[in-house]
Amino acid sequence: MKALFPLIFTLLICSSCLESQSQDARSGSKSDLGFFESSAQKHYFVDGKTGLVVYQKEFPSDWEVMSRPIYNLDNDFPSFLYLMQNKNGMKAFNTPMQQFVAFQNPYYAQAMRGYGVTNERPLISPAGFVEQELKALMGREGFKFLSHREFPELTAYVQQHVAKLGLKNVEYTVYPTEWINDDNVKALVFFSQLILHTDPALIGGEVMAIWNYQLNFFLAPTDHYETDLKIAMNADFNKVDNPYWEKYQIQVNNYRQQQKNILHQRRMRDFNNARDANHARFLDNIRGTNAPPAYASNSSHSNFIDMIREEQNVNLNGKTFKVNAGAENYWMNSDGKYIATSDQFYNPNQDPLYDNQQWDLATKH
User: Fold this and answer.
1) Residue 117: inside a domain
2) 231 FRET partner, CA 20 to 30 A, in 23, 216, 346, 351?
């Protein structure tokens, strides 16, 4: 569940999937863009853990653009903080995504707090957020509220991509508001909100929603406001996603699902083993037998512990690792992650989903 939100925001926030490219994440290049006359620079939004480009955007060459990946919602998939500015006095930046869970039943909410849920917050509408929080925030910075501004092209784009993804039980809203201060600086604040309504059947009939929001700020003097705003929004609409990053996301999600399946199988085996052991002890008591424990021999104690834990020792490059038992082969990468398989002909180095990593076959002990 947790990994869902960075992926959805990456796909939805003012973005457009054009023909993807993979380029050096730390280099810049210039090209002519149709929406402004000056030359342009490409800015690469780079995952800090793999060095892969997540996506890229183009801006005027005289704009200063900085970005930084953060992992507050997912340890593998970043979102990005950015700061842009130019000599006209334009500045644009965003805030980290904030994620919450909302419960309809207050007693259920209290029980979940007892289980350690610390990010509970009732759902709030975009207009409600503006009234309750944003007006006070902007007021402290000297800005007065002007109006809610509609961007039909943005609304249509968001609706198109939500429909394309086929996401059910999901609401996504971008709510822009405009502001002005006494120095004739205008501001546009985008309140982006995503709500995932969970299936009550999965949580005992309770109604629960997981939701998050992010704020994107754009400020510029009134005489440059509309021009620079159009450039910034076109950069968002013409964002280019990296297909290698998309492939990496699939790889990580496949690995996560495999680990979930292994843990589920292990729990089922533990349950069945415990049931069989209880049955055997019951029969021994009836027969009056007193069989010695399986771990009576010191030499077999370690193997017995591994058997109880459903673990297997494997060796790779002189190092020993414990893995979940039950597979014929274990392929490992340099990060210590492994792929368990009983298919003797499977080799992840020949799998296009894993073509950016090296996997070595470990040896069972």
Assistant:
1) yes
2) 23
pLDDT digits (tens, 9 = 90+) for 237-261: 999 999 999 999 999 988 888 887 7
**Mean pLDDT, range 169-194, rounded to an integer:** 95
Location of structure tokens 């029969």: 283
15 within a domain of the structure (yes/no): no
For residue 137, give its domain range.
40-241
Q: For residues 358 and 335, is the Cβ–Cβ distance under 8 A?
A: no
Q: What is the pTM of this model?
A: 0.65
In the chain, the amino acid numbered 149 is R
Q: Is residue 121 pLDDT above 90, yes or no?
A: yes
Same domain, 76 and 216: yes
Q: Residue 36 — very low, low, confident or very high, per pLDDT cuts 50/70/90?
A: very low
Which one of 233, 257, 286 terminates a domain?
286
- Whether residue 58 contacts residue 33, with contact meaning beta carbons closer than 8 Å, is answered with yes
The three-state secondary structure class of 289 is coil
- Which of residues 220, 241, 262 is at a domain's end? 241
Q: Are residues 162 and 57 in the same domain?
A: yes
Most confident of the following: 88-92, 250-254, 316-320: 88-92
Amino acid at 9: F
Distance of CA 260 to the CA centre of its chain: 17
Same-domain status, 187 and 326: no
**How many domains does the chain fold into?**
3
How confident is the prediction for the chain on average, in pLDDT? 79
Continuous segment of H or E residues that includes residue 306: helix 301-309
| Backbone dihedral angles phi then psi of residue 77, each to the nearest 5 degrees | -110, 115
Q: In terms of Cα–Cα distance, which of 354, 362, 355, 364 is closest to 331? A: 362
Inside any domain, residue 25: no
pLDDT at 326: 67
Res 41 pLDDT > 90: yes
Cα angle for residues 336, 338, 339 (degrees, 5° grid): 165
Q: Answer yes or no: are the C-beta atoms of 206 and 200 closer than 8 Å.
A: yes
Mapping DSSP to helix (H, G, I), strand (E, B) and coil, where does residue 358 land? Answer: coil
DSSP per position, 140-197:
HTT-EEEEE---HHHHHHHHHHHHHHT-SSEEEEEEEEEEE-TTSEEEEEEEEEEEEE
| Strand pairing class (64-70; 53-60) | unpaired
**Cα-to-chain-centroid distance, residue 285:** 54
What b/e string do you get for 326-348 counting C-beta neighbours within 10 Å, with b at 16 or more?
A: ebebbbbbeeeebbbbeeeeeeb
